[in-house]
Design a protein that fits this description.
Aldehyde Dehydrogenase, Chain A, domain 1; Aldehyde Dehydrogenase, Chain A, domain 2; 23 strands; 39% helix; binds nicotinamide-adenine-dinucleotide
Length: 543
C-alpha cells in the first residue's frame, strides 16, 4: 500500500562514451568482445522465469565472420509458445496489482545496470551479433536503451498524473489499467534498444508479455534477459520465445486473451499481422491494440543555398552508418544541380577514407550487413542499377561475402526520379541521388512526397529560410520525423519521439507518452458524495 505520492528520479539522457584510443571504456569493451567471441554461449528461451531449452537449436554466427560460431539458441515448439502465454496470464494478477513505484524501480534498476556493470557486455554482444561499430552499439544498446527505460518510467507517472477535474460533490478518477489479457512484442534485428523497449514499456504499465525477438538479434537478447532477471523482474511478466515467426504468431493470435501487438520491423510483415487480427476478430475478448513501426525510404533534399560539405556529411552519416540498416537511414537524395559538383567531389573524397571490416577493429566505420539474404538482396539492387541506362554507380558497387557480408557504401546517380532504388526500401549501404534544376525545386518536393509508400524520416538542407518554410509545408505528410539542416537519423529518446505514418507505421512515437497510452485501458471512476434520493429535477416543479 503506497502512503505517499512519489516522484521518480528526473530522467536524463545517458551521455555517450567516446571510446577514444587508450580510454578505459575502449579497453573494457574490446576485452569483453574477445572473451565472448572466443567462447560458446547457449541462449535459452525464458518462460515463467525459467531458462528453457528445446530439442532444436540454431548456431549464432557473427555477420562479419559468418563461419565462426559463437553459440546457439533454442527454437520454440508449439508447447513452448503455449507455455509462454499461460505463464504470462498466470503472472498477471500479481504483476498488475504491484504498486507502480515497485514496478518502476525494476526498470530504473535495469537502466542503471546497463549504464554500469552491463554496459560493456551489452555493447560487445551487439558488436558481435549485429555487427555494430562500438559507437553504433553504444548509442543503441547502452544509451538509447537506458533512455527508453528512464524516460518511459517518467512518462508513466506523468500519464498517471493526468486526471479529470472534479466538483466538491463528487470525485472523478482515472485508473490507467493494463490491458486485459496478454500482449505480444515482435522485435527487429537492428536495434538492441528496440528489442528491449517493446516488451519493457508495456510491462512497466502492468502488462504481461510474450516477446519474440529477431533470429538475428538473439545474442544481445540474452543480455537483455539477464538484465531483466538481475533487476528483479518477476518470472512470467516477460516471456521470450525464439524461432519460427509464423508458427509463434499463429498461436499467439489464435488465443482469445491476445490483447495487442507491439511490432517493429518490415511493412509487409506488419500488414500480415493486421489482416490476421482482422480475420480472428470474433475470437478475442477485447479489440487488440495494433502498433507497428515499419519500413522507410528516407530522404535528403539539398537546396542550392545549402553548404556542400554539410550535404555530403549528412549523406555519409545518414546513409552509411550501421551499413544503412536503420529504418531512418537516408536512401534517396534530391540535390540541386548548382551545388552538385561540389557535393560530389567532397562526398567521393570522404568515401575514399572509409574503411570496412570487423567491428573489433575500431578504425572501421562500416562493417557487414546482417545476413546472407540481406546481402543478396542489396547486391541484386546494385547489379541491376549497373545494367540500367538511367543509372550510374559513382561510388562503391562492390560486395564480398566470403568472410562476412560486406557491401561497399554505394552511391547511385539516376536521371529517373522513380527508379526502383528511389522507391523501395533496400536496408543496406546504398543511396540513390537525383539532381534537380533550381527552377524546379517545388516539383522536386512533390517527387519526394509522391515517390514511395513510406513516410518515416526526411531532411531538408538549406540556408534560405523561405525555402525551409516551403519545404516543411509541402512535405507535411512525407515524414514523421523531419529534420532541418541535419541528417535524418539519430533520434534521441526524450528529445525526438520517433515514428512515421503511411507505409512506415502507426506513428505511435516510441519513447514518448503517446506510445504508452496504447498499452492502457483507462477506467473512469466517478464517486458521488451525497447521492440523490428523489428523481425529480427543479424544472418539473409546477409554475
Ligand atoms: P523483419 O520484418 O524481417 O523482422 C521483424 C520481426 O518480425 C522479427 O522478429 C522477425 O522474426 C519477425 N517476422 C518475420 N517474418 C514474420 C512472419 N511471417 N510472421 C511473424 N513474424 C515475422 O525486419 P528486420 O529485418 O528485423 O528489421 C528491419 C525492418 O524493420 C526494416 O523494414 C526497418 O525499416 C524496420 N524498422 C523500423 C523501425 C521504425 O521505428 N519504423 C525501427 C527499426 C526497424
Amino acid at each position: 500500500m503506497s502512503t505517499g505520492f512519489f516522484k521518480v528520479p528526473k530522467a536524463k539522457n545517458e551521455p555517450v562514451k567516446s571510446y577514444t584510443p587508450n580510454s578505459p571504456e575502449r579497453k573494457l569493451v574490446l576485452e569483453q568482445y574477445k572473451n565472448m567471441f572466443n567462447s560458446y554461449t547457449k541462449v535459452s528461451m525464458y518462460i515463467n522465469g525459467i531458462d528453457v531449452q528445446s530439442k532444436n537449436s540454431k548456431p549464432i554466427n557473427p555477420p562479419h565472420d559468418h563461419k565462426k560460431v559463437v553459440g546457439e539458441y533454442y527454437l520454440a515448439e508449439k508447447k513452448h509458445v503455449k507455455d509462454a502465454i499461460e505463464s504470462s496470464l498466470n503472472a498477471k494478477a500479481n504483476w498488475e496489482s504491484m504498486s507502480w513505484e515497485n514496478r518502476s524501480a525494476i526498470f530504473l534498476r535495469a537502466a542503471e545496470l546497463i549504464a554500469g556493470p552491463y554496459r560493456h557486455i551489452i555493447n560487445a554482444a551487439t558488436m558481435i551479433g549485429q555487427s555494430k561499430t562500438i559507437h553504433q552499439a553504444e548509442i543503441d544498446a547502452a544509451c538509447e536503451l537506458i533512455d527508453f527505460l528512464r524516460f518511459n518510467v517518467e512518462y508513466v507517472t506523468q500519464m498517471y498524473e493526468n486526471q479529470p477535474d472534479s466538483d466538491s460533490d463528487s470525485w472523478n478518477r482515472v485508473e490507467y489499467r493494463p490491458l486485459e489479457g496478454f500482449v505480444y512484442a515482435v522485435t527487429p534485428f537492428n536495434f538492441t534498444a528496440i528489442a528491449a523497449n517493446l516488451p519493457a514499456c508495456m510491462a512497466m504499465l502492468g502488462n504481461v508479455v510474450v516477446w519474440k525477438p529477431s533470429d538475428s538479434q538473439i545474442y544481445s537478447s540474452k543480455v537483455i534477459i539477464d538484465i531483466f532477471k538481475e533487476a528483479g523482474l518477476p518470472g512470467g511478466v516477460i516471456n521470450a520465445v525464439f524461432g519460427d515467426p509464423e508458427m509463434i504468431t499463429e498461436i499467439v493470435m489464435d488465443n482469445s486473451n491476445f490483447a495487442g501487438i507491439h511490432f517493429t520491423g518490415s511493412t509487409n510483415i506488419f500488414k500480415t499481422f493486421w489482416k490476421k487480427i482482422g480475420l480472428n476478430i470474433e475470437k478475442y475478448k477485447t479489440y487488440p491494440k495494433i502498433v507497428g513501426e515499419t519500413g522507410g525510404k528516407d530522404f535528403i533534399v539539398a537546396h542550392k543555398s545549402a553548404n556542400y560539405k554539410e550535404v555530403a556529411t549528412a549523406i555519409v552519416r545518414g546513409a552509411f552508418e550501421f551499413q544503412g540498416q536503420k529504418c531512418s537511414a537516408a536512401s534517396r537524395a534530391y540535390i540541386s544541380k548548382t551545388i552538385w559538383n561540389d557535393v560530389e567531389k567532397f562526398l567521393l573524397e570522404e568515401l575514399k577514407t572509409i574503411s570496412i571490416g570487423s567491428p573489433e577493429n575500431l578504425e572501421n566505420f562500416v562493417t557487414s550487413v546482417i545476413h546472407e539474404a540481406s546481402f543478396d538482396k542489396i547486391v541484386n539492387y546494385i547489379e541491376n542499377a549497373k545494367k540500367d541506362s538511367s543509372c550510374k554507380i559513382i561510388a562503391g558497387g562492390n560486395a564480398d561475402k566470403s568472410v562476412g557480408y560486406f557491401v561497399e557504401p554505394t552511391v547511385i546517380l539516376t536521371d529517373d526520379p522513380k527508379y526502383i532504388t528511389m522507391r523501395e526500401e533496400i536496408f543496406g549501404p546504398v543511396i540513390t541521388i537525383y539532381l534537380f534544376d533550381d527552377d524546379k525545386f517545388e516539383e522536386a518536393l512533390s517527387l519526394v512526397d509522391q515517390t514511395s509508400e513510406y513516410a518515416l524520416t526526411g531532411a531538408i538542407l538549406a540556408k534560405d529560410r523561405n525555402v525551409i518554410e516551403r519545404a516543411t509545408k509541402i512535405l507535411k505528410h512525407s515524414a514523421g520525423n523531419f529534420y532541418v539542416n541535419d541528417k535524418p537519423t539519430g533520434a534521441v529518446v526524450g528529445r525526438q519521439p520517433f515514428g512515421g505514418a503511411r507505409g512506415s507505421g502507426t506513428n505511435d512515437k516510441a519513447g514518448s507518452m503517446l506510445n504508452l497510452l496504447r498499452w492502457v485501458s483507462p477506467r473512469l471512476i466517478k464517486e458521488t458524495f451525497v447521492t440523490p434520493k428523489d428523481y425529480r429535477y427543479p424544472f418539473l416543479d409546477k409554475d
